[in-house]
């Protein structure tokens, strides 16, 4: 034990914890002994009030259960009423089918239905009735009411009886309605809940109902059972030694009391012998008062001698007109304090000794593995990387020891091999990066060189082809004798020259796209950023593409607000993006229109080009902006370009700080969007002042 205390950590934890426990128990002792009388009395008071509240909650629950029971019974009766009328409705449907098949006339079927309804009886002399749309009871088991006109008949509260049900049934098909009416063979009116349905084929409303007093009988039986259960609960709920809980009403009648002889008796005439005040008003006046009410009363150990001080707390439940009280003798409250004080002192002493013992054992068990970990860590700190902690435990300390050994092993391995690994990997990455960079440079140089080399001869080819065409058409063909064979030859030559010119111009554009893409990728493009008006930009692009749209009979619609703010950009490059997107839309649209829009979206101008063309499949949309990527089979389909147009558009838009995307449905058309940031007002003012 002396060795354990040589551990500074053990000494600190044990001493601190033991001191804290001793101080805690000392404080508890000093606080409890001087004030034990008041504390225990407060506890007893709290217990009495809590018991009172629990009984109040039980009464509230009883009342709530009665409400739930009432609702459940009503719901059950409603279902039963629904089932009864469903049988009648099924019979009406069968008779309707007989009429429709010609087996019965409508009048015969209706008469049969009304006769059958009149004979239906169930439950407590309950029945089914039928009314026409004029509120005349065309079927009723009471002869006095059969064929009676109820269009203006009211119940004892002045409410119409039949007309509301007819109106609701015709409007909604069925429903429920409450009113006051008498049972068959009785004169007194009682509340009745009726369920009714519309039988449109026979122009009838049928109904049946349940009398609320039938439900209340069941509720009263359940209430009696609940009061018996509550009475048993109160008899099994003592307060202190002889205290109890009781219930009386505003008339002073004792409803529930542990002493069965007092139940049903009146508290009237019971007087506090000291104050000479009647007990019932005193208890009623104490409702919800935390201090309750005190008075002199007799004691079961001293009957008839009203000298013992008693305290009662009272709560009132208005829904039942019940006063719920809890009473206890003050002597019993104080007597419990002395017993509890002695027991507390004994418990304090035993618990203190036991706590110190447990603290010692706990700290001993806690420190031992930590000390072993500490010894291993010290060895590693001194350079012994072969040192390992030999702890084998299945708890968190064992996990820490295993993780510690693993970290040391990895540290040892990393120290031995890390430098070589880092150097090797760095060399590999540098070599790969150099190769990739060189390949990218060679590709860009190749594309740029080839494009430059091809552009000059292609310009010559196009120029000479157009010159040859002009000379042939103006100087040669007019002088040739034109017989049929020669005319065909001239036509063939003209067509071939047109093909040469068209394909040469297309090849020239493709070469321009390749060169443009190469320059953008290599960063060799010179940008001329100025303030650009969105409306002017859209109108220029639409003018450029209008001829292409007119050739295919497509309408080109421009929808741009003239008040849109300017954007900062290279106007020619933005014009290139818009023209490319509009041309693509025209190219893949056979009928309909092309709509070009521009609107303000936060701090961006959003341009959109919508067509009614062939659309783009979802799986192909991700390929559109990839360089040299075209949709479709390029081996079987004639290519529509280099596959660079949209990738060039994307680079231009991204260089402006915007985004480009599309929305498309195959067979329904496509919409391409791109955004360009607007110019801040301060920037625009500075530009205007500079200009």
């Amino acid at each position: 034990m002396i060795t354990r205390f040589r551990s500074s950590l053990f000494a600190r934890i044990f001493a601190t914890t033991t001191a804290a426990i001793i101080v805690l128990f000392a404080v508890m002792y000093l606080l409890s002994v001087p004030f034990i009388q008041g504390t225990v009395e407060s506890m007893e008071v709290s217990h009495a009030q809590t018991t009172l509240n629990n009984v109040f909650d039980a009464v509230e629950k009883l009342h709530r259960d009665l409400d739930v029971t009432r609702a459940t019974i009503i719901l059950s009766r409603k279902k039963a009423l629904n089932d009864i009328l469903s049988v009648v409705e099924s019979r009406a449907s069968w008779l309707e089918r007989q009429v429709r098949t010609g087996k019965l006339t409508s009048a015969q079927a209706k008469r049969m239905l009304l006769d059958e309804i009149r004979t239906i009886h169930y439950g407590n002399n309950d029945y089914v009735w039928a009314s026409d749309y004029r509120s005349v009871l065309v079927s009723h088991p009471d002869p006095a009411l059969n064929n009676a006109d109820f269009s203006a008949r009211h119940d004892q509260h002045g409410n119409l009886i039949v007309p509301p049900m007819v109106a609701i049934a015709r409007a909604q098909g069925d429903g429920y309605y409450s009113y006051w009416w008498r049972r068959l063979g009785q004169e007194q009116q009682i509340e009745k809940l009726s369920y009714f349905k519309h039988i449109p084929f026979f122009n009838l409303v049928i109904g049946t109902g349940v009398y609320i007093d039938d439900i209340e009988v069941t509720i009263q039986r359940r209430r009696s059972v609940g009061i018996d259960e509550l009475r048993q609960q109160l008899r099994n709920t003592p307060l202190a030694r002889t205290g109890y809980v009781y219930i009386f009403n505003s008339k002073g009648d004792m409803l529930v009391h542990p002493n069965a002889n007092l139940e049903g008796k009146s508290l009237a005439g019971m007087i506090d012998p000291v104050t000479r005040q009647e007990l019932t008003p005193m208890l009623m006046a104490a409702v919800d008062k935390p201090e309750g009410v005190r008075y002199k009363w007799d004691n079961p150990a001293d009957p008839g001698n009203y000298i013992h001080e008693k305290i009662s707390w009272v709560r009132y439940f208005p829904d039942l007109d019940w006063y719920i009280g809890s009473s206890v003798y003050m002597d019993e409250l104080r007597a419990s304090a002395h017993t509890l004080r002695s027991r507390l002192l004994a418990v304090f002493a035993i618990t203190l000794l036991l706590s110190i013992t447990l603290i010692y054992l706990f700290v001993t068990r806690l420190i031992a593995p930590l000390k072993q970990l500490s010894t291993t860590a010290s060895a590693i700190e001194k350079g012994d990387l072969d040192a390992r902690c030999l702890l084998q435990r299945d708890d968190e300390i064992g996990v820490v020891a295993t993780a510690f050994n693993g970290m040391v092993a990895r540290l040892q391995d990393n120290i031995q091999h890390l430098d070589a690994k880092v150097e090797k990997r760095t060399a590999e990455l540098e070599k790969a990066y150099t190769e990739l960079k060189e390949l990218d440079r060679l590709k860009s140089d190749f594309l740029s060189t080839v494009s430059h080399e091809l552009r000059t001869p292609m310009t010559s080819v196009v120029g000479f082809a157009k010159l040859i065409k002009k000379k042939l058409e103006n100087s040669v063909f007019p002088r040739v004798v034109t017989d049929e064979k020669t005319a065909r030859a001239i036509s063939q030559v003209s067509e071939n020259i047109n093909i040469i010119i068209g394909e040469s111009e297309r090849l020239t554009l493709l070469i321009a796209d390749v060169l443009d893409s190469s320059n953008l990728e290599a960063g060799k493009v010179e940008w001329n950023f100025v303030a650009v008006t969105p409306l002017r930009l859209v109108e220029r692009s639409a003018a450029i593409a209008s001829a292409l749209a007119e050739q295919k009979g497509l309408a080109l619609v421009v929808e741009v607000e003239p008040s849109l703010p300017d954007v900062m950009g290279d106007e020619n490059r933005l014009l290139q993006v818009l023209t490319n997107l509009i041309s693509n839309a025209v190219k893949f649209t056979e009928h309909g229109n092309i709509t070009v829009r521009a609107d303000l979206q936060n701090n961006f101008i959003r341009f959109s080009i919508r067509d009614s063309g062939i659309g783009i499949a979802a799986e192909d949309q991700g390929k559109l902006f990839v360089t040299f990527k075209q949709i479709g089979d390029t081996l079987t389909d004639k290519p529509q370009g280099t596959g660079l147009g949209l990738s060039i558009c994307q680079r231009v838009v991204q260089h402006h700080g915007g985004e480009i995307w599309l929305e498309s449905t195959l067979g329904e058309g496509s919409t391409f969007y791109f955004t360009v940031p607007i110019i801040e007002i301060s920037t625009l003012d500075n530009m205007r002042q500079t200009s």
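The radius of gyration is 51 Å. The longest helix spans residues 396-476.
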